[in-house]
From TrEMBL:
<dbReference type="InterPro" id="IPR043130">
    <property type="entry name" value="CDP-OH_PTrfase_TM_dom"/>
</dbReference>
<keyword id="KW-0808">Transferase</keyword>
<dbReference type="GO" id="GO:0012505">
    <property type="term" value="C:endomembrane system"/>
</dbReference>
<feature type="transmembrane region" description="Helical">
    <location>
        <begin position="103"/>
        <end position="121"/>
    </location>
</feature>
<dbReference type="GO" id="GO:0016020">
    <property type="term" value="C:membrane"/>
</dbReference>
<keyword id="KW-0472">Membrane</keyword>
<dbReference type="GO" id="GO:0003882">
    <property type="term" value="F:CDP-diacylglycerol-serine O-phosphatidyltransferase activity"/>
</dbReference>
<protein>
    <recommendedName>
        <fullName>CDP-diacylglycerol--serine O-phosphatidyltransferase</fullName>
        <ecNumber>2.7.8.8</ecNumber>
    </recommendedName>
</protein>
<keyword id="KW-0443">Lipid metabolism</keyword>
<keyword id="KW-1133">Transmembrane helix</keyword>
<dbReference type="Pfam" id="PF01066">
    <property type="entry name" value="CDP-OH_P_transf"/>
</dbReference>
<feature type="transmembrane region" description="Helical">
    <location>
        <begin position="159"/>
        <end position="179"/>
    </location>
</feature>
<keyword id="KW-0444">Lipid biosynthesis</keyword>
<comment type="similarity">
    <text>Belongs to the CDP-alcohol phosphatidyltransferase class-I family.</text>
</comment>
<dbReference type="InterPro" id="IPR004533">
    <property type="entry name" value="CDP-diaglyc--ser_O-PTrfase"/>
</dbReference>
<dbReference type="InterPro" id="IPR048254">
    <property type="entry name" value="CDP_ALCOHOL_P_TRANSF_CS"/>
</dbReference>
<dbReference type="InterPro" id="IPR050324">
    <property type="entry name" value="CDP-alcohol_PTase-I"/>
</dbReference>
Length: 247
């Protein structure tokens, strides 16, 4: 009888590090669910924001180390499903909807989570790395719902359920959204980048806890009006030549 070689191959550290960062997103998502169950809604929403940070960093670290792998891509999708699909839906349901909504509350929460999972599955098989995102990215969708809680908006259960349905529908739509992954130090307009960073800082200074919601709404609208922020901030061919001449 033929023996199967079950020896575990050594996994390079450049692959382990990005996966460890992705695991931080899972930790944030599960912790958010637990805090939501205990009605600690603001900390639960903030953990979803922290999960966005881990989601951004794992890809950047993987690309910089050359440690991208099929395993990492699958792990990232599973982490996103928890942190930006299930956790935000559970948060909004508990914070604004509740059992008084009857069957409609669980249905709308499940609809949002399902749209997020479908969005991830479509992304894995159809996304072109250099092109815009097709549909609202699930981290942006999860952050949009979490930002409602952080802003402490006094919305009704009907508005909360409508928000979940609207954001969920955008995730599975064909609306194009800007892809910041194509931005590099060599192709970015520094003047526009610094202007954008100043604008974000002012949003947090003026709007405080409502800043996350304002940015989420602006990003959602940018796709609906077909404004590609990544293309806007990138240097064009003539700008790149002049930048190289200055250097």
């Amino acid at each position: 009888m033929r023996r199967v070689d079950r020896r575990v191959k050594n996994i390079p550290i450049k692959t382990i590090i990005p996966n460890m960062i992705t695991s931080g997103s899972v930790f944030c998502g599960v912790s958010s669910l637990i805090l939501t169950a205990h009605e600690r809604f603001i900390p639960a929403a903030l953990l979803i924001c922290f999960a966005v940070f881990f989601d951004v960093m794992d890809g950047r670290v993987a690309r910089s180390l050359g440690g991208s792998s099929a395993f990492g891509e699958e792990l990232d999708s599973l982490a996103d499903a928890i942190s930006f699909g299930v956790a935000p839906a559970f948060l909004i349901y508990n914070a604004y909807v509740g059992v008084e909504s009857g069957i409609w509350g669980p249905l709308t929460a499940s609809f949002f989570a399902l749209c997020g999972v479908l969005r991830l599955a479509r992304f894995n098989v159809t996304h072109v790395p250099a092109g815009p995102f097709q549909g609202l990215p699930i981290p942006a969708g999860g952050l949009a719902l979490a930002s409602i809680v952080i802003a402490r908006l006094p919305i009704t259960p009907l508005v909360a359920m409508s928000a979940m349905c609207f954001v969920g529908a955008l995730m599975v739509s064909s609306v194009p959204y800007c892809n910041a992954k194509k931005l590099k130090k060599s192709n970015v307009s520094r003047a526009k980048l610094y202007g954008l960073m100043t604008f974000i800082a002012l949003c947090f200074f003026i709007l405080r806890e409502k800043a996350f919601l304002a940015m989420a709404v602006m990003y959602i609208i940018s796709g609906l009006v077909k404004f590609d922020g990544a293309e806007w901030i990138m240097l064009h061919a003539e700008d790149e030549r002049s930048a190289h001449e200055k250097d």
